[in-house]
Amino acid sequence: MLATVLALSLSAHNHELTIDMKRNGAPVQKTMYGLFIEDVNFAADGGLYAELIKNRSFDFPYPFTGWQFAGNVEVRNDGPFDRNPNYVRLHASDHPHKWTAIVNEGFFGIGIERDKEYRFTFYARVPEGKDSACVCMQLAERSTNRFRQDFISQEISISGSEWKQYEVVVKSPMTASRAQLRIFLVGENAVDLEHISLFPVDTWKGRKGGLRKDLMEALADMKPGCFRFPGGCIVEGTDLDTRYNWKNTLGPVENRPLNENRWHYTFQTRFYPDYFQTYGLGFYEYFLLSEDIGAEPLPVVNVGLSCQYQNKEEHNYVPVDDLDSYIQDAIDLIEFANGDTTTVYGKIRAQMGHPEPFNLKFIAIGNEQWGDEYVVRLEKFVERLRRVHPEIGIIGSSGPSSEGPKFDHLWPEMKRIKVDLVDEHFYRPESWFLGQGNRYDSYDRKGPKVFVGEYACHGKGRKWNHFNASLLEAAFMTNLERNADIVHMATYAPLFAHVEGWNWRPDLIWYDNLRSVRTCSYYVQQMYAHNPGTHVLKATENEKPLAGNEGQDGLFASAVWDADRQQVIIKIVNVSDVAQDVKLTFTGLKKNQNPELVDITTYSSDNLYTDNTLACPTAILPKVKKAEGTSLDKAAVPAKTFVMYRFKVPGRK
Ligand code: AHR
Predict the structure, then answer these.
(1) Distance 232 CA to ligand 1 centre (A)
(2) In Å, what is the CA distance from 221 to each residue of 184, 214, 283, 529, 568?
């Protein structure tokens, strides 16, 4: 057999990784590497939810947010949708040279692609006793030129005094990244307009009013094991009134009430007073999305606390004795997901298009809560949920920090309350990630399992996406993998960010109105998610895991067995500045079971502090080198590199 020789560096240290193949270790959960979405950074409205019109039903507190108008436009509030009552009446101007029109700016402009079709819909009626009216819909490029030239223009006749929905599909002759939608009143007769919407026809799975295709493809390409939604802090709200209310996300989108987004305010430096949630991407859509991408749905519900960072006052929390409606929300959510079609919420799910249950298995109670105020409320939920739905796994929180007083208080409480999983969150610098190679090795195996629900390496002074941060995440993840008996799920955060509307970075996937880019962290997550294996294998040097400890020269490693592919998968991360030689020794194999190399995936970057960009989205990609049938005794792991080796071991179970 051929020995594969990889480049050697003179200064390389010699190490040995012994992979014990005698028996399989703990099973790796199918949920292990997942995704988490929150509507932060214009992730849902203005992002994944493909609606191109901002404030489509004029129900923002200032009804013309996102709109400009000319001529005679009146806002009225007795529209056809009781929870979004506003609409506009366009009257003819009384001056022969003035016209009446409204113009929508979209989210940072409207992105339109050449030769693609767009579905323009709106509700309209003819008021004031007239039979008919007419509007002209235009798409115009909003450029720095003097002219805002329309490139699509179409007249639409309106008839009758009853509200009706109108639909026009247009094909664009050009690409425009910052177009605007204009609607002119044509003729003398007034018209009422409501819920003015524009979507690409080519959405994910071609669904009407659906999700942006390139972003969904990025999620599906991850092959995630679980999908946590809808947040994050938006579950809590800036106050209880603005908490995420999943029940408001049900039914026709026209009547889902608007909610102020908590990320509207969070940082003064990143203030978006026009950031609201239409709930067009609501719980039904999130369950469907999870099903589409084969991920276990993990909904989070409010525990009766608004954001604890922003509300230190008890009066912004629900009194412990008044939690009934909040607990009922959790119970109804389980019915919505799993109940048969004769139940109240199961019926709503069926009416929305999914008679089959979504097969919900877990529910998270509270996001990133802490203190006794959380514990007493959580207990109430757990007590009731265990009685009514003992089959549903409950996820509790360990607070906002990776360690410290809040964390130390909550973990024992979570054990006492007997939640099934504890959600840990950490956004920490490089030094923290480097020092966490053994984090889960010593966790109590008898308590709840771990869900690493939000994490990312935030470079010190370099709090943006770059390769080095992703390398340290890869190193840290060897520890998750090695401890798959206790770590059952992990989801990087946040997921999405619009380049012109971000609140928080780094993020996994960035986009503008037309393009998107998968970051280095995305590819690290994907390497794990595509190669989770089915069982942990013991992989050690001198009986100790390679976890970046003293004497280990910046090496981190883990190994898994994939029973379906009959492969052993070894992940090694070298965070040091020098290449390392790692002798791979397999023990416990039968005579005829020689591991044969299948391929080597190498992930590195010439510049540690750059990432893929919208202009150059494939600059830094993992490179797979096929090596079918060869053997490899010594892995030469280059400096600052993540390498994954896959070996076939015929005959092993
Ligand atoms: O991911 C961004 C925020 O970080 C989440 O909303 C919150 O849970 C955490 O503090």
Answers:
(1) 5
(2) 42, 10, 22, 10, 22
Task: Please write the tens of the pLDDT for every residue from 65-116.
Answer: 999 999 999 999 999 999 999 999 999 988 888 899 999 999 999 999 999 9
pTM (predicted TM-score): 0.96
Residue to probe by mutation, ligand 1, list 35, 425, 491, most atoms within 8 Å of CB: 425
Question: Within 13 A of 266's CA, how many CA atoms are on the CB side?
Answer: 19
| Cβ neighbours around 89 below 10 Å, total | 18
Residue 526, by phi and psi: left (phi above 0), alpha (psi -120 to 50) or beta? alpha
Measuring CA to CA, which residue among 325, 246, 310 is closest to residue 281? 246
Helix (H) or strand (E) holding 407: helix 405-417
Q: Which residues pair with 154 in a beta bridge?
A: 137
CB distance 246 to 329 below 8 Å = yes
| Test site for ligand 1: of 37, 40, 236, 263, most ligand atoms within 8 A of the Cβ | 40
The pairs formed by 200-207 with CB atoms below 8 angstroms and a separation of 24 or more are 200/50, 200/52, 200/113, 200/116, 200/117, 200/118, 200/119, 201/116, 201/117, 201/118, 201/119, 201/169, 202/116, 202/117, 203/50, 204/292, 205/292
| pLDDT tens per residue, range 250-303 | 999 999 999 999 998 878 888 899 999 999 999 999 999 999 999 999 999 999
Extract the tokens encoding 418.
């007997």
